[in-house]
Design goal:
mainly alpha; 3-stranded antiparallel β-sheet; 3 strands; about 75% helix
Length: about 375
């Protein structure tokens, strides 16, 4: 154990956030899966211990392994991931498992697990963008040499994800725009990207297979009073959970709305947190993600290499934007989507991809620490002499 702790590097605050979010996840999922366990005819302890806790522990192990690998290796890995991701997204649209009228899931042979290919795509695109922006810095303003190759990958992944999962695609597109700004792409070109993204959004929204779903969700959000109770069922019960939680909450395991919400352990896990732990519990969870973003920004500003800075920035933006999108849906600030709360919501493979993202951020942080230590040592030698 001491050897493991000695090898554990990186920002200690981020490690603390990982542990706290993992503990919160186990507590809330344990409480909110009782109805699911009843439907499956098993004990909640068996359901929790055989799935979620195991994935949480595997996730922490993957964070540890990913942070040990020098982040520079992820530049090469990103090329392989992109080669795998694009055909896999196409395969998912054609042959993927259909859930809620959308093909988002692919079944892994032998082990029988399913995963959303968009989780892999997020990791692949962000690492690939960080690599491309770093390599093209000498001619970053050149449209042919830099802009077209970079935006080609963004647009292809955006369309393939948006065809089945608009919310994830929009968040990934937003992260890509932030990376382009940090990577010194010209404002004129970024405006062209935004215009192009808007055209692609309209194309998918009006011609895609889920156009009726998107239209219904927007109408339900904009005009809930005109909808029947079936369409506003999830948002209504989420608001009931928020209102009944009060300041201090009902206490662990005392949620009532977990018996009504379809996915209280994933999409609406933040509503469960507030119902059981109150407004204080919700503020604590929000604060953890804000501290995570702050610590990651410090890593970005101190990173000695452009690739490390872009990598940490992209992954941290992705995690925090996803977190606040999930919380916004729970409190009624956005239409209902299927976005999980990073490292808190129950979900096997999504939790593992999130863990890898945390591990890569810590790998960059580890490099920042090592470079800082080298500067201190070099600076002390003349003084000692």
């Amino acid at each position: 154990m001491n050897k493991l702790l000695d090898k554990t590097k990186g920002d200690r605050w981020i490690w603390l956030i990982i542990i706290l979010l993992s503990l919160i996840s186990i507590l809330v999922v344990y409480s909110s899966t009782s109805t699911l366990a009843f439907k499956r005819g098993v004990g909640v302890e068996k359901l929790l211990l055989t799935k979620h806790v195991i994935f949480v522990l595997i996730g922490i192990a993957m964070i540890y392994i990913a942070h040990l690998l020098d982040y520079r290796y992820y530049a090469g890995i990103s090329k392989v991931l992109m080669v795998i991701t694009i055909p896999l997204l196409v395969y998912t649209l054609i042959f993927g498992a259909n859930v809620n009228d959308a093909s988002r899931w692919v079944k892994i042979p032998v082990i029988g697990l399913t995963f959303q290919t968009s989780d892999l795509a997020k990791l692949a695109l962000i690492t690939f963008l960080a690599r491309m922006l770093t390599r093209k810095q000498e001619n970053i303003k050149d449209v042919k040499e830099a802009f077209i190759p970079i935006m080609g990958s963004v647009c292809v992944v955006f369309v393939l994800i948006a065809w089945a999962n608009m919310s994830t695609a929009l968040m990934l597109f937003g992260v890509s725009i932030l990376l382009l700004i940090i990577g010194r792409i010209s404002i004129k070109q970024i405006m062209m990207v935004c215009a192009g993204g808007f055209v692609l959004l309209l194309f998918v929204a009006f011609l895609g297979p889920r156009r009726e779903v998107y239209k219904s969700r927007i109408e339900t959000y904009m005009h809930p009073e005109r909808q029947n109770s079936d369409k506003t069922f999830q948002s209504d019960h989420s608001k009931i959970a928020l209102a009944s939680g009060g300041v201090f909450g009902k206490g662990p395991g005392n949620s009532i709305e977990k018996n009504f919400l379809p996915h209280p352990y994933s999409d609406f896990v933040f509503a469960m947190i507030i119902e059981e732990y109150g407004t204080i519990g919700g503020i604590i969870v929000m604060s953890l993600y804000l501290v995570l973003l702050y610590r990651c920004i410090k890593i970005v500003t101190r990173a000695p290499k452009a690739f490390g800075a872009l990598l940490a920035a992209g992954l941290s933006f992705s995690l925090t934007i996803q977190a606040f999108a999930n919380m916004a849906v729970a409190v009624g600030l956005g239409p209902v989507t299927g976005v999980p709360l990073p490292l808190v919501s129950m979900g096997g493979t999504s939790l593992l991809f999130t863990s890898i993202a945390f591990g890569i951020i810590l790998s960059v942080s580890k490099d920042v620490e090592e470079n800082s230590n080298k500067k201190v040592i070099v600076g002390e030698i003349p003084a000692m002499a």
